[in-house]
Structures are given as structure tokens and as C-alpha cells.
């Protein structure tokens, strides 16, 4: 075989017969008409998703999205104002969680100057939006971490509203630090302990009789639950919390309107966790309407008579929870719908009488009594 180079033999790569090879130029295949359409569609979808994501991020982080709607005017018009008062541990809580530690639904009727205070068990087993069924105190955690409109307060208000079928016109959230400061700022409160109890976890307790409590001791009175005996369940603790609310109301009755307004204005700066969607003008309006409401016009309600305890077997959240006897919320909704039809307390015979402190046979301590 001859070794002579034949340029024509490789004409495909050496077209000018120069003997110099050139790298072949491979043209990319042209997309078909169908492929072009698919690319345009995918580009449009991707661009649309980016736009929607941007709108979602803007919405979630906008101040309006993170605020619970203020429906105070609607409550005044309907002659029923529902306010959700709840407490969280805040920065000083041992576990620093965002669970709602106590939940109270306060309903006010301006035309008759009536009030109803309903303690909502924090372990009440209810549906929470798209999160499934959980204890109601979990609503605040889920709302804080999921970007729900209004965050934790928004989801908790919506959950309580759907459970009781009542609109929530405003809310007030207070953490432990703010609670103590409020009590200290009004000079402490007077509490009549109807049954002595001792908390074996904190190794502390309260004897029967009158106590003048500063903020720290008032918080202990409202929170202790590691107790053997009738004061050891959460229902008993809820009624002690109602006693604290009544004692604060009694104390505010004896301060000047100017001092009360200063306390209201300072409320938003008590701590980073303290929050309300009520305006200062609305809080002042509530004080003017209801600060002198007689105790006989206040209805204290425990849900113990219409609920039962049951064991949750879910691995993620085991333990005891609370549910209605009928398996739905009909009794709760009927109770709230007719809450002003009577002033009779709702409680079981083994629970304390919140209004017993107003009995004439109970001698109140002097206002300057020592703190215990």
C-alpha cells in the first residue's frame, strides 16, 4: 500500500486539498416546532412561579399580613365584644416555647354592662386550620412558624372563633415578664385562697386565707399545677387565673382614670412578646365602660362540666387532653351563644367559687398589707 498522501481521499475534512486538516464544524440540530412550544411554555411557567413567589414573600412580610384584623367596631355594633386574652412563657419560660400557657375568652355586653369570662382549656382537642387536630395551645406555635396571616395570635384567634362559633374582635397577648410588671405597677393584688395547696415541683404553696401578692407570687398562684388534690388539675388552675383577673379589676377600680390610662399606654412596651391589636383609644373606651362593673354582673365559666379527659395516643404529642362529651363543639357553641342569659357561675361542685371572695363574711386585708 502506498504511503503517499492523497488529499482527495479526505476531501470531507480537507476540501481545498492543502493537506491541512481542519476540525469539523458540527452544527447543532435545530429544534422542532413542538420543542420550541414546550420551551416557551416552561419558561412562562417558571417565570410565573417566580412572580407568585415574590408576591407571596412580599405579602407574608408586609405589616398588614402579620396583623390580626381589628374588629372592635363590629363588636360594639353587635352589642357584644369578644376579646381573647392569652399568656405565653416568653423569654423567661424554661423551655422558651410558644405554646399558649393560658387562654381566656372575655365577652362584654355594653348595653347591660355584663361580662362573661370563659377559661378555654389549653389542652382542648380541636381542629386547627390545615394543621389537623391538636391541643388548642398548639395553634399559637403553628401560626408563629408557618407564616399564617396574623402569625400565632391570628391562628389562635381563628381557632377559638371556629371552635365556639363566635367572632374574635380583639386580642391581648401577655408573657410572664409583662404579667409580673402589670401586677407590680398597680401595687400588687389581694387574693383569697379558698383551698390551701402545695406544688411539689416548685416546693412552694399557698395557705388558706387572704394574701397580698406581688407580680412574682401572683404568677405562681396562677401557674402552679403540680399539686396533689383538687387544686392539681388544669381546671382548678384556670379558675385561679380568673381570680387574678378579678383582683386586677378590683384594683383598677380604685385607681384614678389618669393612672389607668397611663398603664394602658405603657402596656405595649412591657415586653417584646406583649401584643394587642386594640388601639389605645379602644382600650380606654373599654375601661370607661366596664371599670366599675359590679361583680354580680360578671359570669365566671369553667368548661369542666361539659368536657371530659381522654388519652391521646399519637406518638408526637401523647398525654391527656380535653374534649366535649358529645365529640363535637355543639355544647361549647350553645354555651357561648347564650352566655348573657344568666349570671350563674358554671363549674362542678368540687371547684372553687370565684365570686366567694365578695362574701360579707370574708374580711379583706388592708391595702398596705405585706406581700407574701
Which tags fit this structure?
14 strands, 34% helix, two-stranded antiparallel ribbon, alpha+beta, 10 helices, 372 residues, 6-stranded mixed β-sheet, single chain, Aminopeptidase, disordered C terminus, elongated
How would you describe this structure to a colleague?
The structure is a single chain. With 372 residues, this protein is of the alpha+beta class. The protein has one domain: 3-Layer(aba) Sandwich (Aminopeptidase), CATH 3.40.630. The chain is 34% helix and 19% strand. It has helices spanning 33-61, 72-78, 138-146, 151-164, 176-185, 215-223, 234-253, 257-266, 280-290, 330-337, and strands spanning 81-88, 100-109, 114-120, 125-127, 133-135, 170-175, 189-193, 197-199, 204-206, 209-213, 275-276, 298-302, 307-312, 319-324. Strands 11-6-1-2-3-12 form a 6-stranded mixed sheet, with helices on both faces. A two-stranded antiparallel sheet has the order 4-5. Strand 13 (307-312) and strand 14 (319-324) form a beta hairpin. It is elongated and about 100 Å long.
Q: SSE order in H/E notation?
A: HHEEEEEHHEHEEEEHHHEHEEEH
Number of domains: 1
CATH architecture: 3-Layer(aba) Sandwich
Give the overall form: elongated
**For the CA atoms, what is the radius of gyration?**
32 Å
Low-confidence stretches are 55-60, 367-372
Backbone structural class: alpha+beta
- Give the distance, in angstroms, between the N- and C-terminal Cα atoms: 117 Å
**Biggest sheet details:** 6 strands, mixed
> At the fourth CATH level, what is the homologous superfamily?
LCP protein
Strand order of the largest sheet: 11-6-1-2-3-12
Note the beta-strand portion. Answer: 15-25%
Number of alpha- plus pi-helical segments? 10
Number of strands: 14
CATH C-level label: Alpha Beta
